[in-house]
Each structure stands twice: as structure tokens, then as C-alpha cells.
Amino acid sequence: MSDTRPLEEEAYDMSGARLALTLCVTKAREGSEADLDALEHMFQQLGFESTMKRDPTAQQFQEEMEKFQQAIDARKDFVSCAFVVLMAHGLEGHLKAEDEQMVELEDLFRVLNNKNCQALRAKPKVYIVQACRGEQRDPGERVGGDNTVMVTEKLQTIPTHTDMLYIYSTVEGYLSYRNDRKGSGFIQTLVDVFLERKEPILDLLTEVTRRMAEAEVVQEGQPKKVNPEIQSTLRKQLYLQ
């Protein structure tokens, strides 16, 4: 039987600490607790040290991110990766904090990049954003490789923004949906797939997108479609299981 395990230079080393931070505005966002419960279960099952903060103000969004970065850089053990989950009402590029002030996503994203978080240099940093990105609604439409390998150990420098993965609950300009009791279809589907399957994370996200594309959300009596958007600068395969 052939060995199908990825080569060391093709996959991130996930043998060290896995850290997660969830910042969630629950105010006027019924169903958020169901998402928090699902995420807590997922992080526990996948071996993450998870921290959750409910209803952060705009200042606290930034402060909690910076505290997370400082705690990571202060660790003496090997850190494999970091996940950050951001859940709130939003518009493109912004989240609405508990105090109704807007937070720029880019300000939160840059905290863990290769320039600002030394312990996570060349390691995967995953942002999951469950928020609207505009006001548009999607009714749906009817329908009838590169083999280059880069070895981190041989690199003298690394780009500032590599090893990042941004997972948005919807595409730019569109609404994101959440059930008042069951939580958001995006978070619930993502948790199901991440716990069920063992492929690289980008393959898992393709499955999340497929399942969400098949589902329908009924809003104001009309069926709507929604699908996540993935932006990646990962250099290697990222396996969570």
C-alpha cells in the first residue's frame, strides 16, 4: 500500500499548539449562541485552545486581537496555526461592534500577518467572517496546476501576507443569513464539514460551498441563495485532522 501522507514541504506542520479566538456580537443577532456552541465543539474536537468573547465594542475588537497576538508571541512552545472567527452585522470591509461603531476588517487582519506576529510567520492564519457584506440578495439562477513547491526552511524572506486564509460567509456586496434558533447556515455547515472530513482545508471549503449552493434560505417568503467566498495565500496544504 502506498503512503499517501503529504510530504513535509507540502503540508503545514500541525504538531504544535492550535489557537483560536472568536469575537461575536450577539446583540440583535438571534441565533448567535447556536453558532458559538457549534464553534466551541469544533475547536474542542480539533484540539484548539479556544477563547471566545461576546459583544466586543469597536475598541475591544482591536484590543482582543492585539492581546491574542501578544499571547502567541509570548509562548515558549511551538505554535502551528491560529484561527480567528469574527461574527457581527457588517458591510463590505467593516463589522458593526456592540457599541454600533464600525471596525475595519483590514485593521484586524493585519495584526497576525507575517510582519506583526513573529510566532506565526510562515504558519497558517485563518479568518472566518460571518457577517453581511452589503444589502444585495441573491435569488439564484437556473443552470442546464501548478506543481511549484516552496520549502520554508530555504526561504531567506517571506512575503508579509502569505499563509493567510480568509473565509467570508457571503460574497462581496451581499447579505449573510442567520436563523433565529439554529444559527447561520454558513457556520453550521462549516463546522459539520470540518468535523466530518479529513481533506486539506481548501477542499473542505469547496464542500462547504457546494452544500450551501444546494441549500435555499427563505426570506420574506422568497427563496434566496448564499455562498461563501474564500481568499487564500496559503503556500501549503493545511490539514486539521
TrEMBL record:
Cellular localisation: Cytoplasm; Nucleus
GO MF, one example: cysteine-type endopeptidase activity
A single GO BP: cell differentiation
Domain Caspase family p10 residues, every copy: 154-241
Chief subcellular location: cytoplasm
A single GO cellular-component term on record: cornified envelope
Signal peptide: none
SUPFAM superfamilies: Caspase-like (SSF52129)
InterPro entries: Caspase-like_dom_sf, Caspase-related_regulators, Caspase_cys_AS, Pept_C14_caspase, Pept_C14_p10, Pept_C14_p20, Pept_C14A
UniProtKB keywords: Cytoplasm, Differentiation, Hydrolase, Nucleus, Protease, Thiol protease, Zymogen
The Caspase family p20 domain, residue ranges: 29-136
Gene3D superfamilies membership: 3.40.50.1460
Family: Belongs to the peptidase C14A family.
Subunit architecture: Heterodimer of a large and a small subunit, both processed from the precursor; the mature active form is a p17/p10 dimer and the intermediate form a p20/p8 dimer.
Name of the protein in question: Caspase-14
